[in-house]
Write a structure and sequence with these properties.
Elements: H1 3-11, E1 20-23, E2 26-31, E3 40-45, E4 48-53, E5 57-60, H2 68-77, E6 82-87, E7 90-95, E8 104-107, E9 111-115, E10 119-122
Antiparallel strand pairs: 1-2, 2-3, 3-4, 4-5, 5-9, 6-7, 7-8, 9-10
């Protein structure tokens, strides 16, 4: 799901404050960020946030629950070519490339966001790393 799709869905909501049901136990909400002006939509599963949708990027979360259902909802709403899978109890984000024999696979915990044009931004390659984790040594 991207910003435009989320915006279209939210326009059909009966009450924007209560969110828009988009699946079983899954709701779409709009969050107005008055501090930065960077408004976003969120997808919640059982009340836990599993995705933020900004105009230029998507931020996936596990909501604290790495379940089959969480993974299914993420895969349902991630952009085409991205999906979450599990191997040996660990979660990964797979990005299909044009050469399907060489997909990119990232540790799900290291995915900071998926940019609409530039692809995956990892936490360890983000310009504010490690400050984003509260490391004050720099």
């Amino acid at each position: 799901m991207n910003w435009n799709e989320a915006e279209e869905l939210m326009m059909t909501a009966r009450n924007r404050n209560k969110g828009k049901p988009i699946g079983n136990n899954t709701r779409l909400y709009f969050t107005e960020n008055t501090l930065t002006g960077d408004d976003f939509y969120t997808i919640h599963l059982h009340g836990n946030e599993i995705m933020r949708i900004f105009r230029d990027r998507i931020v996936p979360f596990d909501g604290g629950w790495r379940t089959v259902t969480t993974k299914a909802r993420l895969n349902e709403h991630l952009p085409r070519g991205f999906y979450v899978f599990q191997k040996n109890w660990d979660w990964y984000l797979k990005v299909l490339s044009e050469d399907e024999n060489k997909p990119f696979v990232y540790d799900f915990s290291d995915v900071y966001y998926i940019h609409n044009e530039r692809g995956v931004m990892l936490c360890k390659t983000h310009p504010n790393y490690p400050k984003m984790y509260g490391d004050d040594d720099e």
